[in-house]
Amino acid sequence: MNKNLKKAIEAARFDASNVPKPAPLITIQGRTVCSVSGILALGGLPKSRKSFVLSLMVAAIASGENVLGMNAKAGRVLWIDTEQAPHEFGQKFEMIQRIAGAKALKSDDVFLFRRERPETVLDALHELCTGGQYQYIILDGLTDLVSNVNDFDQARDLLLSLRILTEETQTAILSAIHLSKNSGWTIGALGSAVDRVAESVLTVEKEKDGATTIKSRYMRSDDDFRPFSIVWNDQARAFELGEPAAHSSSGFDLSVYTREKLIERMQSVFAGADFLTYAELSSITANEFGVGLTVAKTRILARLKHEKIISRHTRGQWVFNYAENGKQSTDSTPD
Q1: For site-directed labelling of 20, which of 63, 87, 296, 298 has its Cα 20 to 30 A away?
Q2: How far apart are the C-alpha atoms of 212 and 227, rounded to whole Å?
Q3: Mean pLDDT for each consecutive 10-residue tract of the chain (335 residues)?
Q4: SS3 content of the chain, % helix, strand, coil (to 5)
Q5: What pTM did the predictor assign?
């Protein structure tokens, strides 16, 4: 056995007599959403106010008090931004200062890497954290740390790098990641990796009435919290807690999908695959439409079978009956 392998095995050995208990850092309604060495991901569509919610969390970190439903242990914050121009980030910076005080976030701890390549940003991140002076790292946004969000190797390597960083520096990462406009799930292979690795994945929605709604999607360390919203009180000239908009939790409506639209969606489901098992088909379809497995099986797949968009192959697997151009395929042999 070579030395590196032996070292890896020993480092991975579980010691039941010395199980670490990471300290909670950020809580919502008493539920732990992020702990020491944890990763918290905020998912949302473009311009859904993910950066705004990150700013509120930083204000809570800086003040050590409840800020619009979010509590956090005080600590120093490193902010890495890959999307905003200086004048855009300046508005967020001023808002944090107004809420939490002039010393809430030091400008020396903010780095705007809008023009840099992913590998440069990641190298800079590790270099900035070598001193161990930070308790929190803001990564806004996570999708800019890979060159291809659908590359599984890049996604795996990035999340491994971030996990090592948080463990070695005893920090927590608060990140933003885009959701797919079509499915409503975290985007690409990177999103799948984040969903698996993150301590919590929350979603941020910008409602039609102007409110910002925050929901828990995946919680590893605690139970889900109740969805809540943040609204602007024009009279008080301040943000305040509100009730989630009634339409934000509306049910899935399959009737809005035409046959052509369903065929388009299934092209994505079967991308790169000639056949799928029923388990694979159900899971990928659920992700594509942003629904649970039960809805995917009993409603979506049932309609797809009825309309002969998909069919069961003689080998027991499932096949998509339409080519990439949307025309019916003639090479499938359903039973």
Answers
A1: 63
A2: 11
A3: 87 87 91 96 92 93 88 95 92 86 82 96 96 95 94 96 96 94 85 94 89 90 88 87 52 79 89 85 83 82 92 85 61 44
A4: 40, 25, 40
A5: 0.71
